[in-house]
Sequence to fold (333 residues):
Amino acid sequence: AETAFGPDGLAQRHYPYPAVAPVAGYYSLRYGTSGLEAAYDAQLRGQAGRSDLKPDWLADLLHLPQVGQPITVTLNLPGQLAANEALIEAEATGAVVILNARSGEVLVMASQPTFDPNTLETDWESLLAAPTAPLLNRATQGLFPLGGLARLVGVIGLFEVGARLPPDPLLTPLPDLLAPLGDPGLAGTAHQLQFSRELTFTLPTAAAPIPDNLPVKAEELSTTPLHLALVGAAIVQDGLAPLPTLVYEPSSPPSHIRLMSAATAAHVYAQLTELSALATPEVTGNEPLSWYWGLVEGEPPLVVVAVVTRPGAEREAARMVAESTLRAIEPHR
Fold:
């Protein structure tokens, strides 16, 4: 976003890339703030460090405009634009997240449908009334049923309890695959992966409740694309997932949460090729929904999550969105 001062001395915000709206959010004197505009409001408006006890006397005396401090966002702009365009071309509701598995830096966080913050004032009522909820960031607050990705959760759980994987986990019926987990079965692993807890993140997140000490069916398990990305990061990072970040803060080393043991992470990583096939893509639920989950080796390693839902969504819909995004991001990695 860019700030310019009008003839009246009031600051006006301009957003040259509306595709970044799910992350950047909006700033409006009438409707408030969202996204990074809300999280870093004081810094962006030049209020950080100021108070009634510590005013900027010189600026006030000279009637100088209040100048905000910039923030540097971790997003990879070509990747962000490509993800947004791929979702639009797919005519789908969905989201894409690409995460640096080591640092937790979010390189792509796209959500569709979205909005144009430049026309927020005129579009506000229609945005609120739209059944597609364009103001919702589906990457952090969209709760999607896991469907076939429950197999990934199950495999993590099997390694955690020391069980052996069946010869062909892709063809093994899910109840048989999960049987060695006992009670509470899949729910226990989902709790361990913290699916029932909202993530600590710059932007608002969502989580679906999971029954305590009760079995849960795969179709009853939901989470956000961002949370699934953290599961992938934990597999790369010996079971420790870096807390995701959207803004460069060099003085703050990444914090981590443990989602699985180091041994489990190593076992799952060793099965990477098989698990990638096992975890991608899947059509599930009452509304056709396609997931793509995968790890991209290299430096830094990346976690890619895409979800697409639309009438008639084919199994490969999310894969095509993810691959379009990766083609744009790789030259700038």
User: Anything to note?
Assistant: Residues 277-281 have pLDDT under 50 and may be disordered. The first strand starts at residue 2 and ends at 5. Residues 77-332 form a domain with the Beta-lactamase fold (CATH 3.40.710.10). Residues 77-89 form the longest helix (13 residues).
